[in-house]
Amino acid sequence: QLLQRLSQATGCERVVDVGAGQGHLSRFLAFGLGLSVTAVEGDGRLAGTARRFDRELLRELEKTGAPRNGGPPRRRRPPPPLARRGPRHVAGRLDPGATWGEFLLPADPPGPDPVARNPLWGPGGAEGGERVLVTGLHACGDLSPALLRHFARSPAVAAVASVACCHMKLSTTPRPLGALPGYPLSSWVAALPGHQLSYRAREAACHALEEYAGRLGEESACLRAHCYRAVLETLIRAADPGKKRPGVQTVKKAHALSFPQYARLGLPRVGLDPAAVPLDSDAVGAMLEQQHKVVAFFSLALLLAPVVETLILLDRLLYLRERGGCRGGGEGAAGLPVPTLPLPAGFHCALVPLFDPRFSPRNLVLVAARSPLGAALSGLDEDEDAGAAEPPGEGQS
């Protein structure tokens, strides 16, 4: 609904969906809303899967006599709502440091198709000369900041809608010479003493606070998994002190397992032999008895998670205000003077709580446009405030 309103408000019918994955959002925008969609995915295999899903959907539509790509129906029956053209899938990665005319890098891993043309390159800006909307649904780590950077520097992009996730994967300062960090983006936040965010803080900001509160209220057995993970990491560090932050993938239904069963599944994932690690010792039993302390610690960390996520998202909003009001300046703290309040009038931008956080914990959408957002945001949710849209100031484009 938000993208449809943005399309109507900006007059853009072309959408570039970055980090499209298997193309679920792209299919809805193309088949359901009739928009012209280019789906960009950095994993060539996922782009291939998305094309297969498109073909399967088109076959189902043909069975009902629905028109394909605007063609006449094969049977005499009213076409269903999904009688639309499909998205165009592009396998390529977003280059956060490139100019808007050099939008894509080759996919990794590559797909079977040749490298596609840049969907933001053509006469007048975008391919075909039209302006486009850019969106990224749960764009991971540095991908979300890259979308905002391209919007700020790309006249072909009329508006952007970004839902971020995986904040722990954000790159931070210091960075190699010429490399742009994912956090902070704004000069204002970069100049704040103590603005740095640790990996642990950024990781905590990704958890589902509402879901965890429900588990606490129900005293759910799922809480046991946190203690299991803490004990397992202790054993891993004891066996290999070099593994300070072991990337143990989630063990499904861990709460239904005994700890030895859980550990035998988790240890091989970090290259350790379960037979060489004591799993039934008195020390392990003593640690497992401290589950209540682990839950209390995790709960305290989650209380701060919304603060961390708010800082990350407001930093991005401030970046858009700086860039829109100070065109032609450089990137980052070295390129722009640190603004004083009130901030310069920049792009029109808003943070919109679009989803139910119990359904999607990363429910805040950062929307930015070169024209006022009032028409796009009004009425999104009649029961609650649609978002924290900032009033336009003088000099906004």
From TrEMBL:
GO terms for molecular function: rRNA (adenine-N6,N6-)-dimethyltransferase activity. Residues 61-91, 378-397 are annotated as: Disordered. Gene3D superfamilies: Vaccinia Virus protein VP39 (3.40.50.150). InterPro entries: Methyltranfer_dom, METTL25, rRNA_Ade_Mease_Trfase_CS, SAM-dependent_MTases_sf. This is rRNAD protein. Residues 2-172 form the Methyltransferase domain.
